[in-house]
Amino acid sequence: MSDQPHIFMDVSRLLSRARNPIPTGIDRVEYEYARYLLEHEAHRLTFVAFHPVGVIASVNNSAVRDFLDVMGPVWDGDAGLRARLPRMAQRLTQTVLLSAWTMPVYREQSVYLLVSHHHLTRPHAIEQFLSRHGSLFVPMVHDLIPIEFPEYARPGEPERHARRMAAVARLAAGVIVPARAVARSLAPYLQGRPAERHVHAVPHGLHLHLSGQGSGTLRLPRDGRPYFVCLGTIEPRKNHLLLLNLWRRMVEETGARGPRLILVGRRGWENENVLDMLERCPALQGNVLEYNDLSDPEVVTLLRESAGLLFPSFAEGFGLPLAEALVLGVPVICSDIPVFYEVAGCNAVYLDPTDGPAWRAAIEKRLEQERDAGTHAERSMRLNLFDWSRQVAEGIKMVDRTAAFFHGQGLHGR
């Protein structure tokens, strides 16, 4: 349609993450938006990226497609392709400087779409791009956790995130968020700003491979013991200590007759207490297992064969593990925080993340249900939930509606 704006989609985060074979949630969001636009909106798409010298300019769409064609299989466990990604990302980043001089000024309606928080602390580069091309700015804000819960953030991160939100408030025409809970957190920053009336909650989709186990790093003891999964970076906000203390007590009381706990995720920051327990607590050895580098298919295999997902986090912007469990039909015990109710509705058991006895009771009840139903009972998968194509399409509709409003008012980018 002629009235649709041109979309400048930023892929800076994907280029910066080329050396990481395991994606984060935000990595996956940027990948899926880029993929969708290539497949469905290529006629009005230009990929752009940020160069560390402080400029944003175009990168070749075909080269980005080739990059994504390698990145996807790497994330799915193809170790043989890993070495190619950093070289491809370096070449793409180098072309940004050249295109900064040669990229023509875009003179039609356009939107600059940034679905990560990458370079929001460099607002001058964003403002220059908007001003040059007359574009509207639509970013995605994933959460405000570093500001709301500074005790769980790395040193300096609350201040950096406050600068990001200040840039969003000053420059954005509209904002995509993954949940209404994030929209409520963002609202005070947007009061009186152009984007205040154009904040749209679009839940993330999921990327689930259901057919196989992947590259083979998943090695579980085959002794028939049931297990629970806790999925997420090992950091204080995820509340692993609650589970580790519960497991120590259960092992001391029941020995090897109880369930195992499997932690899946990278080791994060300020987690010394958790690591001390994992490495030095005798009761946890062999009863709590840790996996730091599982591919997406391996995580799916692990979840599907588990007794349930345990998610005692203190704060989340969305909660991808919760959505994954819902789609796979895996039972969930999670924190009673607003965003989890928004994602799971009545399909989870909600508990105070500080109430250890309640968590133990819920875990024991889940084990009883598992025994009554039979080991690895067949579970129904709700594959219609959190479909990436549908979710990205909703995000792009929001972009188009925002652009139509501002262009209808005769307002353009900076």
TrEMBL record:
Its EC number is 2.4.1.57. Residues 222-370 form the Glycosyl transferase family domain. Keywords: Glycosyltransferase, Transferase. InterPro entries: Glyco_trans_1. Pfam families: Glycos_transf_1. Gene3D superfamilies: Glycogen Phosphorylase B. It is an enzyme of class 2 (transferase). GO terms for molecular function: glycosyltransferase activity. It comes from the Bacteria. The keyword Glycosyltransferase applies. SUPFAM superfamilies: UDP-Glycosyltransferase/glycogen phosphorylase. PANTHER family: GLYCOSYLTRANSFERASE WBBK-RELATED (PTHR46401). This is GDP-mannose-dependent alpha-(1-2)-phosphatidylinositol mannosyltransferase. It comes from Komagataeibacter europaeus (Gluconacetobacter europaeus).
